[in-house]
Amino acid sequence: MNFENILVAVDFSETSQRALEAAEDLARRCGAKLHLLHSHPIQFLSSSPYAPVLPVYHFDDLDAAARKQLHAWREEHCAKELDVVEHLSEEPPSLAIVDMAEELGADLIVIGTRGLTGLKHVLLGSVAERVVQGAKCPVLTIK
User: Fold this and answer.
1) What is the three-class DSSP state of 13?
2) Which of 17, 20, 35, 89 would bridge with 96, disulfide CB 3.0–4.6 Å?
3) Angle value at C-alpha 136, between 128 and 126, nearest 5 degrees
């Protein structure tokens, strides 16, 4: 199978580093463009009119910090000869990954798993599981 666009979801964990390594290997073999996606959803904890209001610059600071960390991760972990593009999203991770894959016309999504077990898995599921269910292209999960 020949891949042109590979999307790899990164959350800066050891698991996502392994996913990135696998994606890099595939990208190198196929001459594919590698897309790094980090999702940092903005969560509003209350809809009460008495809840504290965060200033707009707070969200800009969060975005800038995520962008800086993604760029640093790319520089640290990605081979220089690869064509790598960075993407940020404020959507929940599974939705961001599926949406970005469709937008890019990705041939493959590579994502790490965290290995939730027991009741926690039953209640929360996993991002990787939701991506596998929602993606229109193949998904490679890395444990």
Assistant:
1) coil
2) 89
3) 15
Q: Give the global pTM.
A: 0.84
User: How far is CA 38 from each of CA 13, 68, 71, 120, rounded to the nearest angstrom?
Assistant: 11, 11, 10, 23
Q: How many Å apart are CA 13 and CA 1, to the nearest integer?
A: 28
pLDDT in tens, 41-85: 766 555 566 655 555 555 677 888 889 999 998 998 888 889 999
Q: How many Å separate Cα 123 from the centre of its chain? A: 22
Measure Cα distances from 14 to 59, 67, 81 in Å: 26, 19, 23
* CA torsion angle 128 133 139 142 (round to 10): 30
- Can you name the residues that pair with 87 across neighbouring β-strands? 37
Nearest alpha-carbon partner for 11 in 60, 55, 79, 73: 73
Domains in the chain, CATH or no CATH each: 5-43+53-142 (3.40.50.620)
